[in-house]
Specification:
Shape of chain A: globular
Distance between the termini of chain A: 38 Å
Number of helices of chain B: 3
Helix content of chain B: 40-55%
Helix content of chain A: 25-40%
Structural class of chain B: mainly alpha
Structural class of chain A: alpha/beta
Oligomer: heterodimer
Strand order of the largest sheet of chain A: 5-4-6-7-1-8-16-15-9-12
Number of strands of chain B: 0
Strand content of chain A: 15-25%
């Protein structure tokens, strides 16, 4: 077994990676400015929703214009995840002010995180052939290109004429961070010069995810959709499923600086690991270890983190276990239940309280919503917390009202998923 | 179906398959591919729609008969003569 990494590993890691563009669609905004505005105003994107077999439920739906970047023909042939991905990628490139016509598109890499892919298309087709007494001769020839796991990333390359590498990362609900990490690593390895990286989700179009969460006792219900997603609140009832997408343009710092690019922040730390303990239940020991690994790579101490974007999904186990992990890494033991943060100015929030759980997009979208805090110094709150769960009472929680603190220079973004997959990224203001 | 009805049915299918195209100026004798953007997957869509709508099975060796509107209608006439509108 190799016990030490190759000698060139540290120099590769020292290649600085920055975010230069953000493209997104969220249930409460179709670009970063509108999304941020909704977060600061406390505007939810969750609404009433109906899906076959399950019936009336709640979901976060996106209303971006698919035809802004696709022809009807492309929309018909492709998938919703593909449309979400294309919209996000095109918006990111536009935001980064990259001269798309003149760049070498064989040096662009596309790395898209997904929680799952293919369920929507398979369910649709089974529903279709049901009308033909399950005659498989009417099963569509579009099934395979729609359901191959690389579909959302591949649709981006088709739409944008990208001939560099593309693939998806299947990483459950850690996928948004996983896409970002993969993009950074490929830039560090020199496999591409521009990475389109992040995550997407079309999950609200599969009844199975709603029915599965319902059977698990983890699907949110509430008479007021805007109040349904309630991480950290004693009256939480579970997950609100949402769709969405967020892709970043990542570049090596040297390239971004040379072209005078706007820089949102530097990806200074990241880590992924596994719980190896349960299919669905989180493990705070490994979550904490993942956060420490990211801090170590970033060469930052816990007291140097100014904002933590939590993953908590509004399930008791998910929320409480993440809070245990955060407390273990970021809080000093003080004898009382709350303790104090190593950084007295630390602020902690949760974005799912607005938009629900955007699955494969969650890590990237939740990070994106916090990036403007580098400029305005404001931490958007976790909304819908009427009765804070005492087990989630972390020092630094920002609840229901935005808080302007001292300068925010670092953001740590958690994203965890089923089968015990953990991901953490740390972004630093430049 | 009459030949005129078959032609209208094919146009309806093409509207779904090629929603960005203006089909009003299609010339019956000229290959579809020389007039509008259609690839092999689109032609399979035509085959699939005829199968779904009218239970018509078109063997693969006959796909070339679907090249133009005129050849398509000519090919389908005997197969669809008993199909009611």
């Amino acid at each position: 077994m190799i016990s030490t990494p190759p000698s060139h590993a540290s120099s590769l890691r020292n290649t600085r990676i920055v975010i230069t563009g953000v493209g997104l669609t969220s249930p409460n905004g179709n670009n970063l400015a509108d999304y941020r505005k909704s977060l600061l105003k406390g505007e939810s994107g969750v609404g009433h929703y109906h899906i076959r077999y399950v019936g009336d439920t709640l979901a976060g739906e996106c209303d971006f214009d698919e035809l802004k970047y696709q022809r009807r023909r492309e929309v018909r042939r492709g998938t919703r995840a593909g449309s979400v991905a294309i919209y996000s990628a095109q918006e990111a490139v536009a935001d980064a002010e990259i001269d798309w016509k003149s760049i070498d598109r064989s040096r662009v890499g596309v790395y898209v995180g997904v929680t799952e892919h293919g369920n929507v298309e398979t369910e649709n087709e089974i529903y279709e052939i049901k009308g033909y007494d399950y005659d498989t001769s009417v099963w569509t020839h579009h099934h395979n290109p729609r359901t191959v796991a690389n579909n959302p990333a591949g649709e981006i390359t088709l739409n944008m004429g990208i001939t560099g590498p593309h693939y998806t990362m299947g990483a459950a609900c850690a996928a948004g961070n996983a896409g970002l990490i993969q993009g950074a690593q490929m830039l560090q390895l020199g496999e591409c010069d521009l990475a389109l990286a992040g995550g997407v989700s079309e999950s609200i179009h599969t009844f199975g995810i709603f029915a599965g969460f319902a059977s698990q006792g983890a699907l949110a219900t509430h008479e007021d959709p805007a109040r349904a997603s309630r991480p950290f609140d004693l009256d939480r009832s579970g997950i609100v499923v949402a769709e969405g997408g967020c892709l970043f343009t990542l570049e090596r710092y040297s390239d971004a600086a040379a072209r005078g690019a706007k820089i949102y922040g530097e990806l200074v730390g990241y880590a992924m690991n596994s719980d190896a303990s349960d299919f669905v239940l989180p493990n705070p020991v490994e979550q904490a270890r993942c956060m420490r690994m990211a801090l170590e790579r970033a060469e930052l101490r816990p007291d140097q983190i100014d904002l933590i974007s939590t993953h908590s999904t509004a399930t008791p186990s998910g929320d409480i276990q993440e809070c245990i992990a955060i407390r273990e890494v970021f809080c000093n033991s003080s004898g009382d239940s709350k303790g104090t943060s190593a950084n007295p100015d630390l602020m902690i929030n949760n974005t799912k309280s607005y938009i629900g759980h955007t699955m494969g997009a969650a890590g990237a979208l939740e990070l994106a919503g916090n990036l403007p805090s580098f400029d305005d110094g404001i931490c958007h709150p976790t909304i819908n917390v009427d009765q804070l769960d005492p087990q989630c009472d972390l020092p630094g929680l920002v609840l229901n009202e935005p808080r302007k603190g001292k300068a925010i220079r670092t953001i740590l973004n958690n994203s965890f998923g089923m089968l015990g997959i953990n991901s953490v990224v740390i972004i630093k203001k430049i | 179906m009459t030949s005129a009805e078959i032609k209208q049915e094919i146009l309806d299918i093409l509207h779904d398959i090629a929603p960005d195209e203006d089909l009003s100026g299609l010339t019956d004798e000229v290959n579809f591919r020389d007039q509008i953007e259609l690839d092999s997957m689109d032609f399979l869509d035509i085959v699939m729609e005829l199968r779904k709508r009218h239970r018509i099975q078109i063997p693969e060796e006959d796909y070339e008969q679907l090249a133009s509107m005129q050849s398509t209608v000519t090919f389908l006439e005997p197969l669809m003569k008993d199909v009611k509108v």
